[in-house]
Amino acid sequence: MHTVFRLTLEDALVMLEAAEQEARRIGVKQTICVADDGAHPIALHRMTGARLTGVEIAIAKAFTAAGHQRDTHLFNEPPNGPALPGNEAFGISHMHPGRFAVFVGGFPIVHEGQVVGAVGVSGGNGEQDKAVGAAALRAFREKVAAPAPNDGEPPHAPA
């Protein structure tokens, strides 16, 4: 038997809010996608003024990070990035045309050792996308670590 954790819309909304706050702080208009462990979008947010192309790019980054359970930029990070020319996964982006992103901005969401989803960020340069993604992941960790409203109290029976 195996316990499976699932992201909720509430989890995704917390991450989107934190990501947008960081994007505003650093002055970049981003599109942020939170996907579940099956790489399906749970929530998508395109900030006012963010590029129209960012929608599909953010979804692809989340798809790749969830499906491959790794940060997307690791595919092309020299010298051993598997998608670099001559390396074992060169051309992998052609396996899922339009859905597989091998550049900065996709980050798996990990809880208790399980990849439970991913966040994809598009609209800034690599460092900006990483900062916004990191803010989303921090918000998720803080939400999960926070005690539930009834922790320590027995549930109340309906009257």
Secondary structure blueprint with pairings:
Layout: H1 9-26, E1 31-36, E2 41-46, H2 54-68, E3 106-111, E4 114-122, H3 126-145
Antiparallel strand pairs: 1-2, 1-4, 3-4
Brief synopsis:
With 159 residues, the protein is of the alpha+beta class. The protein has 3 helices and 4 strands; from the N terminus they run H-E-E-H-E-E-H.
Describe the structure.
The protein is α+β, with helices and mostly antiparallel strands and 159 residues long. A hairpin with a 4-residue loop joins strand 1 (31-36) and strand 2. The chain has helices at residues 9-26, 54-68, 126-145, and strands at 31-36, 41-46, 106-111, 114-122. The protein has a four-stranded antiparallel sheet. The N and C termini lie far apart (37 Å).
Q: What percentage of the residues does DSSP assign to strands (E)?
A: 15-25%
Rg is 17 Å
N-end to C-end Cα span = 37 Å
**Any idea what the shape is?**
globular
Count of runs of 4 or more consecutive helical residues = 3
Q: What is the N-to-C succession of helices and strands?
A: HEEHEEH
**Main sheet: strands, sense, barrel:** 4 strands, antiparallel
Secondary-structure-derived class = alpha+beta
What proportion of the residues is helical, as a percent range?
Answer: 25-40%
* Low-confidence blocks of residues: none
Number of strands: 4
In spatial order, strands of the major sheet run: 2-1-4-3
Mean pLDDT: 91
Q: What structural keywords apply?
A:
alpha+beta; 159 residues; 4-stranded antiparallel beta sheet; single chain; 17% strand; globular
